[in-house]
Amino acid sequence: xxxxxxxxxxxxxxxxxxxxxxxxxxxxxxxxxxxxxxxxxxxxxxxxxxxxxxxxxxxxxxxxxxxxxxxxxxxxxxxxxxxxxxxxxxxxxxxxxxxxxxxxxxxxxxxxxxxxxxxxxxxxxxxxxxxxxxxxxxxxxxxxxxxxxxxxxxxxxxxxxxxxxxxxxxxxxxxxxxxxxxxxxxxxxxxxxxxxxxxxxxxxxxxxxxxxxxxxxxxxxxxxxxxxxxxxxxxxxxxxxxxxxxxxxxxxxxxxxxxxxxxxxxxxxxxxxxxxxxxxxxxxxxxxxxxxxxxxxxxxxxxxxxxxxxxxxxxxxxxxxxxxxxxxxxxxxxxxxxxxxxxxxxxxxxxxxxxxxxxxxxxxxxxxxxxxxxxxxxxxxxxxxxxxxxxxxxxxxxxxxxxxxxxxxxxxxxxxxxxxxxxxxxxxxxxxxxxxx
Length: 437
Fold this sequence. Notes:
By secondary structure, this protein is an alpha/beta fold.
């Protein structure tokens, strides 16, 4: 009896596992399930990490495949290569769909599209212009290095195309000549597998397609499949947002302004805290962007010039030099030919104006404070005016700002006369009579 119960439990567990796997792979009505994610930004390490995790998650959930809706101007080479590695050896079919109409798969997007299990485009989209550009921290490449990078990119593109049995010759042209083609021409040249206007048409057209996976061949069953849209979580949204060069630039400016204010007016605390956090976030973001050392150096040099204005009387010349250095540094900060990886002028110009005015205002306040007449201590008493309480010559008493002081004078001053402090000797004020006109 006990053996029968045990056998029944084991069989039940096995059935639950089998049914559970089937439920994960199919919708409630028995249809297959596909996850859908959207990539509509530049390709950065944050995007690469997001795609990798979503593919792993789809596989763990038992989805039949994942569809990546792609619209990108390109991005960083290292991030693109991380994505391609996953797409060439995926645990489940990955369909890259350049969508909607008007979208593009440019530069790094070309490699990502060609590396997919199924490459699809919507009418009115384009793909191409994959010539490598100077990326990462540093300046432009010399001719020899540029040739090496180009040849490496060509070999990489051809390798992807050949593995996916797509047009390797066109892939080489996309790199060497930066050619770009429409969806219709891409289909004709065997760059992609299908053209579809929407998700429903895409699923209908790729139904029955055999996909080669590391685990073996899989036949897609997509007609009428259940679509599960997967939105970015808060963490992924934050990382992708920080990878935006406009956001990184603003964080850097806020950080420098906050720290500068804290150094100019010690004890404010809040500006220093905000500035420190902003600067750390900016440096984190710049790890994922093509940053120029020269741009960073010029921006930091502008801060040094603003600080020097406080210490050195330059009649505003150092402030002018600081503004010029800030402008040049901002223009040179991100070294990329891809607009999505550069700071927009609509963001840069207002930021430069506001930050420059802020620095100049802080400098003006600091200089004014330095040149202001002292209000406390011995120096603060010089020039104060009051009234003689007694006759004063060698000694006497005066009333200065509500306080009684011992006083002396080189001339006789009668009681009740208006007097002015001209010196301080210990606790005795040296005064003179105020001559009335």
